[in-house]
């Protein structure tokens, strides 16, 4: 485990999955990231690569050959190499191997970096195509943020504020086997949305494409700002598990450059919705930011 910090925040990152595992606000010692208690969810903030979500039936065609991959790909379950560490920044790399090519045939270099600036964590992704072929991939984030003042007996667990002028959002409808139906349904979420069991029972994952939700603020039960996620990704997911009518002690705010398959999809991986394509020797760079409020 590696630690980076400045005067306002402290973060810990594991080489396994290059995963952010802790984010602490120093002014009061509050932990903002989920602790990976497996009774709810065993992860903190995994990277999703080279797919986001599920492939239909867990398999897909890449350049005419069938490959199988589990949900969200394999990078989150592999050990990255530490490339650079400073007091307030750290960078890891994952390079393709014989093992990865059994799931995904391309040569690639994936770098994940974390930088602290004031009370903000900047998460950076850098994907290089080291193959002689065009590289198709998806990438996304899945950070789980704790809900302050959590009480399982509550009916409202906090609020989400969407820093956008609209009240109605186009939500993708989840169908079978972790894939979407292809239907986009306009739903009024408003500017400030209560976090309730009913919300995530009706929408197990909120998926917004052509994404207007580029700044989402979590609020506590007094509607005071707690944390903000900012991004420029084309798709966003919002998820919190529910058990027996009780919401988990966290909510995931997930910027995605990708999306799960549509039910029944059997086309080539490169034609999957929101796939990114890189020519040989080309690179892709993206980032998202977590503001501790």
Spatial order of strands in the largest sheet: 8-9-10-11-27-21-20-15-18
Determine the fraction of residues in helical runs and give it as a percent range. Answer: under 10%
Q: Which structural class do you get from the secondary structure elements?
A: mainly beta
Q: Secondary-structure element sequence?
A: EEEEEEEEEHEEEEEEEEEHEEEEEEEEE
Portion in strands: over 45%
Biggest beta-sheet profile: 9 strands, antiparallel
* Annotation, overall tally of beta strands: 27
Low-confidence stretches: none
Note the topology.
Elements (H helix, E strand, L loop, with lengths): L1 E4 L3 E6 L4 E7 L4 E2 L15 E2 L10 E4 L2 E4 L12 E6 L2 E7 L2 H4 L6 E10 L2 E10 L5 E3 L1 E3 L2 E3 L12 E4 L5 E7 L5 E9 L3 E3 L2 H6 L2 E4 L6 E5 L5 E7 L3 E5 L2 E2 L2 E2 L2 E8 L18 E3 L4 E10 L1
Antiparallel strand pairs: 1-2, 2-3, 3-4, 5-13, 6-7, 8-9, 9-10, 10-11, 11-27, 12-26, 13-25, 14-25, 15-18, 15-20, 16-17, 19-22, 20-21, 21-27, 22-25, 23-24
Structural notes for this entry:
- By secondary structure, the chain is mostly beta strands.
- It has two helices and 27 strands.
- A nine-stranded antiparallel sheet has the order 8-9-10-11-27-21-20-15-18, with no helix packed on it. Strands 5, 13, 14, 19, 22 and 25 form a six-stranded antiparallel sheet that branches. The protein has a four-stranded antiparallel sheet with strand order 1-2-3-4, with no helix packed on it.
- It is globular, with a radius of gyration of 19 Å.
